[in-house]
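Intended use. Records like the one below are meant for learning the mapping from a protein sequence to its folded structure. Do not use them to infer anything beyond what is encoded.
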Amino acid sequence: MIDALVTGGTGFVGANVVRELLAQRRSVRVLARPRGDRRALAGLDVEICEGDLLDSASVRRAVKGVNLVFHVAADYRLWARDPEDLHRVNVGGTRAVLEAAGEAGVSRVVYTSTVGALGIPEDGGPGTEETPVSLRDMVGPYKASKFLAEQVALGFAHQGLPVVVVNPSAPVGPWDVKPTPTGQMIVDFLEGKMFATLDTGLNLVHVRDVARGHLFAAERGKIGEKYILGNRNVSLAEIGVLLSEITGVRPPRVRIPYWVAWGAALAMEAVARIGGRPPRVPLTAVRMAKKRMYFSPAKAVRELGLPQTDIREALRDATEWFRAHGDARAR
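Structure written out for the chain above:
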């Protein structure tokens, strides 16, 4: 019997979940695409099961003989030439994993959603797991697909499958190989490319805390419940100041009006449609930035014991990792 299967184990959050499982001396299987980037798992003692979320037979092979399933995998793109790709992977793939988990009789499934699938209060306060939200509140195909996938997961829980949902905010830290949009922001800062900010904000959390939150959700989470895995709400300008204090690089001093960012992103997407390469700043990212993505992790702290590592440490760990792996340089 394998202790745990991690889908998306080659990604940022998934690779950190794998590391936390291995630290507890648990046996780990990772579902990975045959030609996928596996740098985040280099040197780790894990079993690789080659397959794809869109190949239900390979998903069943991966789930067979495991105790826990951490379904972390997702198509995390804010721009895609064919938005239906996101729906096929995030919604259809989630359904395939949960169906296979039910057939295999696993003891617990932790489904990785996102705070992007949650509601944001009109008064500007932090969102919670209970903030009202609907599909029409979702900005862009990625958020819409994750909202629908979360509904699939909760539906399986209501039918009796032992599913717990976690909603990470914006994790930062080591092993952000690709990197994620938040990681790319840090790389841009280190390379002197983050010369301006928008009037927006997000909830930052150390990726190690997110990974541990997954394990705590498997151990202590209530079936059919959602848990925000986050920490501190900070504005984009505040993040620039914190990074400046850590690195000595000057923080951005210019604030771009929303309409300027919107126009620039629109132009970039027009070029992307012609050339096929993703835009540097997707229009969806700018539209998302119109609201501050502030959330409260109080429920996860109270019920799961979610750690709250200082975000300065998270940002420091991220900058040191990017520098050490040649993804960024301080000018």
